[in-house]
Design brief:
Elements: H1 20-27, H2 35-47, H3 52-72, E1 77-81, H4 91-98, E2 103-108, H5 111-120, E3 127-131, H6 137-141, H7 144-149, E4 157-161, H8 173-178, E5 189-195, H9 203-215, H10 223-228, E6 234-235, E7 241-242, E8 263-269
Parallel strand pairs: 1-2, 1-4, 2-3, 4-5
Antiparallel strand pairs: 5-8, 6-8, 7-8
């Protein structure tokens, strides 16, 4: 269970309130998390000890999607929205392995993510980290730090990994994705991953309750709902698929696991 000793945090950070970014970091074996985050993660893992494989499967999908866009589609500029805390491998590393000219702008609104991202991921002419809110795309797409690095008159690869399942129905998730399109040139691609309501593991129902109460909103949705979020984009094969089954000829991921059905991936193109 979580540590009981009090923890210090940078100014503006509340270490007693868990966040998904830090719970996700803990699942991936990171150290940028607090006792409150570990408590939520440990409660989930008491029910579903294999829960971290969902986080690892999500990283596989991101790597495959970014590699596909950079290597096969020739996209050399990316925006990672709701990027979360830096991990061992990040979008600009995936992209530049496939295309050495690739550039990436990371966007997040979590203060601790911003602090770590700016310290660890900023690389002049290659990657930068800016503050932005998913619900206000007009602000971050017009941020001078973004427009200095990226040319929005050319195709962009947008990454929405493990963020849309925090958007409640009343905030219109499809509308949130749709609001990004005016800022994207034709030929741009949008990929997203989302928690999936597969209905095939009874333990997941209690895990959902813990995430809902501990993180203030994590919504498991059916693949048909996720597909609707891509309205107005041309969905690429194989459509909405479990994360490790999305373009399995891409970079090798972890061994197949039943819990990989709890996260799906999809990519769409703006024509």
């Amino acid at each position: 269970m979580a540590d009981e000793l009090p923890e210090s945090a940078p100014p503006g950070i509340d270490p007693t309130t868990p966040t998904f970014a830090r719970v996700y970091d803990y699942f991936l074996g990171g150290k940028d998390n607090f006792a409150a985050d570990r408590e939520v993660a440990d409660m989930v893992m008491q029910l579903v000890p294999e829960a971290p494989v969902v986080a690892r499967g999500n990283r596989v999908a991101i790597e495959r999607a970014v590699t596909y866009m950079a290597r096969d589609l020739g996209i050399d500029q990316f925006v990672d929205i709701g990027s979360g805390l830096p991990t061992a491998s990040n979008v600009h590393q995936f992209a530049r392995t496939a295309n050495p000219d690739a550039r990436v702008v990371y966007v997040d609104n979590d203060p601790i993510v911003l602090a770590h991202g700016r310290a660890l991921l900023t690389e002049t002419g290659v990657a930068t980290f800016i503050q932005g809110d998913l619900y206000e795309p007009e602000k971050f797409f017009r941020d001078p730090a973004l427009t200095r690095l990226l040319d929005l008159s050319r195709p962009v690869g947008v990454v929405l990994a493990a963020i849309m399942h925090h958007v409640p129905d009343e905030r219109d998730p499809a509308g949130v994705v749709r609001a990004l399109r005016p800022f994207l040139a034709s030929g741009s691609h949008v990929m997203l991953t989302h928690l999936h309501d597969s209905g095939d593991d009874p333990r997941v129902e209690e895990a959902k309750r813990i995430l809902q109460s501990g993180l203030g909103g994590s919504y498991f949705r059916h693949s048909s709902d996720v597909e609707r979020f891509m309205e107005g984009l041309t969905i690429l094969e194989p459509g909405v698929a479990h994360v490790t089954q999305w373009r399995p000829d891409g970079p090798v991921g972890p061994l197949e696991h039943p819990l990989h059905t709890q996260m799906v991936a999809v990519m769409g193109r703006k024509d």
